[in-house]
UniProtKB/TrEMBL annotation:
Residues 44-59 have a biased composition (Polar residues). Residues 82-200 form a coiled coil. Residues 31-59 are annotated as: Disordered. It comes from Oopsacas minuta. Keywords: Coiled coil. This is Uncharacterized protein.
Length: 210
């Protein structure tokens, strides 16, 4: 004996038929308010839900999904697959270690080349600075020699006014002029060489820069 009621679920938008085994007590499907003559009984085990045929495939699908999930879990946890995964991890770790070693070797090689390059550059800068210093010393000597020659010429002119138009005086003037001209050429060459060296960005402007 029992009662049959139909209940409409707003959530699933479906009508379900419920068979009440005991005297009328409500289940969670009832939407009536509680009262002394209308008691709510939330325990679903006390009712037998006669589900619509449309809901049966859902239950079957759920069971099928559970079975497939179990199969997948069994496959994942199988010893062969675990061993394969461990081998793959070891292989990747070895490859990563080799790459790190290669990077370390490349870094060391680059640092060694950089040190050699800097040492060579410093040596070139020092040698170039010494050359510039020597050239400037030569220029100073040439300038001093020119000044001395001009002084000698002026002194000779003052002490020998009578030889102004003479052959000896002319020869002396020619000799001194050639010496002055040669000194000026050396001076120009030295200046050109200094300017050429200055164009090199690695060359300091003075010996003190090194």
């Amino acid at each position: 004996m029992g009662n049959r009621i139909r209940s409409f679920s707003k959530r699933s938008n479906q009508v379900s038929e419920i068979h009440i085994k005991r005297p009328l007590k409500c289940t969670e499907f009832c939407e009536k308010p509680s009262s002394p003559t209308h008691e709510h009984f939330p325990n679903q085990d006390e009712t037998t839900l006669l589900k619509n045929p449309e809901l049966s495939p859902q239950q079957d699908n759920t069971s099928e999904i559970q079975v497939k999930s179990a199969e997948v879990m069994n496959t994942i946890s199988s010893p062969n697959l675990v061993k394969a995964q461990q081998k793959l991890i070891e292989k990747l770790e070895n490859e990563l270690s080799n790459i790190r070693n290669e990077l370390a070797d490349t870094k060391r090689s680059f640092e060694q080349k950089l040190v050699k390059s800097r040492s060579k550059t410093a040596s070139i800068r020092a040698e170039t600075a010494l050359i510039i210093y020597e050239l400037r010393e030569n220029i100073s000597e040439i300038q001093l020699e020119n000044a001395n020659l001009l002084n000698k010429l002026h002194k000779y002119e003052k002490s020998n006014p009578e030889l102004e138009n003479g052959a000896v005086y002319s020869e002396l003037i020619l000799t001194l002029s050639e010496q002055v001209s040669s000194a000026n050429e050396k001076l120009r060459d030295a200046n050109c060489e200094i300017e050429s060296l200055k164009q090199d960005k690695n060359v300091p402007n003075s010996v003190s820069d090194t």
